[in-house]
Amino acid sequence: MERLQKVIAHAGIASRRKSEDLITQGKVKVNGEVVKTLGVKVSSKDLVEVNGIPIDKEHPVYFLFYKPKNTLSAVSDDRGRPVITDYFKEIPERIYPIGRLDFDTTGLILLTNDGEFANLLMHPKYQVEKTYVAKVSAIPTKQQLYKLEKGIVIDGKKTSKAKARLISQDNKKNTAIVELTIHEGWNHQVKKMFEAINCPVTKLKREKFSFLTLEKLQPGMYRELKSFEIEKLKKFAQEN
């Protein structure tokens, strides 16, 4: 199920805010009934009409993308910065990223036009694991890594249990490469977790999303998810 204004926006009728205006003005029908209340949710089986015209239901598409550095995980930017959908101009569907990576963070991110699928993977209760590799400007001790694994308080709330592994260290430069696996997706979470143990991140890359990896992709490249991968992600999320 997905909010009505989001469905209208994804169909290319109007922006999210304008879609809300269309609803409150009584210009939207769901299954023949006028809906004026915001927050109503609809499924792919519901007939949605705007100004008496049924909205087109796009064929669902799913992509795995290697996000380059200095690219926004967004579909547009009022400051003219590069956005993730700049790399999908030949794709006719109105896709959007599932979750986000920081502007300067690289790595694996999924895009789709399937709202139910996106919500399934983003909701923290489904515990979909994301694995990051960070270069940090300090060498974390076993005790510090244990703090990350046990859960650490950032922004007044404690993170869930995680997995942390020291990959390598440079004693001369006092830097290290650390792998961290989490299943939440709070704003700047990975960077804040490392800051909390006094190991600031200087470079960050997401290497895995559940069982998916970047494989042979280079920054700026993408591929469609295979049918069995889509079903596996759905099944994994629903079983957790």
From TrEMBL:
<dbReference type="InterPro" id="IPR006145">
    <property type="entry name" value="PsdUridine_synth_RsuA/RluA"/>
</dbReference>
<dbReference type="Pfam" id="PF01479">
    <property type="entry name" value="S4"/>
</dbReference>
<dbReference type="GO" id="GO:0120159">
    <property type="term" value="F:rRNA pseudouridine synthase activity"/>
</dbReference>
<dbReference type="InterPro" id="IPR018496">
    <property type="entry name" value="PsdUridine_synth_RsuA/RluB_CS"/>
</dbReference>
<comment type="similarity">
    <text>Belongs to the pseudouridine synthase RsuA family.</text>
</comment>
<dbReference type="InterPro" id="IPR020094">
    <property type="entry name" value="TruA/RsuA/RluB/E/F_N"/>
</dbReference>
<dbReference type="InterPro" id="IPR002942">
    <property type="entry name" value="S4_RNA-bd"/>
</dbReference>
<keyword id="KW-0694">RNA-binding</keyword>
<dbReference type="GO" id="GO:0003723">
    <property type="term" value="F:RNA binding"/>
</dbReference>
<dbReference type="InterPro" id="IPR050343">
    <property type="entry name" value="RsuA_PseudoU_synthase"/>
</dbReference>
<protein>
    <recommendedName>
        <fullName>Pseudouridine synthase</fullName>
        <ecNumber>5.4.99.-</ecNumber>
    </recommendedName>
</protein>
<dbReference type="InterPro" id="IPR000748">
    <property type="entry name" value="PsdUridine_synth_RsuA/RluB/E/F"/>
</dbReference>
<dbReference type="InterPro" id="IPR036986">
    <property type="entry name" value="S4_RNA-bd_sf"/>
</dbReference>
<dbReference type="InterPro" id="IPR042092">
    <property type="entry name" value="PsdUridine_s_RsuA/RluB/E/F_cat"/>
</dbReference>
<dbReference type="Pfam" id="PF00849">
    <property type="entry name" value="PseudoU_synth_2"/>
</dbReference>
<dbReference type="InterPro" id="IPR020103">
    <property type="entry name" value="PsdUridine_synth_cat_dom_sf"/>
</dbReference>
<feature type="domain" description="RNA-binding S4">
    <location>
        <begin position="2"/>
        <end position="59"/>
    </location>
</feature>
<dbReference type="GO" id="GO:0005829">
    <property type="term" value="C:cytosol"/>
</dbReference>
<keyword id="KW-0413">Isomerase</keyword>
<dbReference type="GO" id="GO:0000455">
    <property type="term" value="P:enzyme-directed rRNA pseudouridine synthesis"/>
</dbReference>
